[in-house]
């Protein structure tokens, strides 16, 4: 784990709100010089603290308005079977997140697709055709009241 000082935290808080800030805008907001900000951000990227710099899209605006939360239970839970399942879902763009969980199911997936027909096709491809998938339990979002990507740095 990387040790973060107060300036690092201020930089990270600002970048979590708006990663499109120019270096000068960022420096002004965190009360540091532009060269200092540039060095700090580069260090945070190199250390892996900043894992990705992305644009977060509105799913309903790009034809991916159905969110499915899916619990998966495998027949065989040995590490190699879990890794094989993770590799399978990693190839699927619609699978936004994959978590190994305990207790309960083996995995929880967050899936974003256009509609139920698209979900059905994905479920058939990823789950029904896999001999090691024992149980699939799907929940469909009818309303998203909160969605955040920012982490607390306190």
TrEMBL record:
It holds the Pfam family AsnC_trans_reg. The keyword Transcription applies. Residues 4-67 form the HTH asnC-type domain. It comes from the Bacteria. Keywords: DNA-binding, Transcription, Transcription regulation. SUPFAM superfamilies: Dimeric alpha+beta barrel, Winged helix' DNA-binding domain. One of its GO terms (molecular function) is sequence-specific DNA binding. GO terms for cellular component: cytosol. GO terms for biological process: regulation of DNA-templated transcription; response to amino acid. This is Lrp/AsnC family transcriptional regulator. It comes from Undibacterium nitidum.
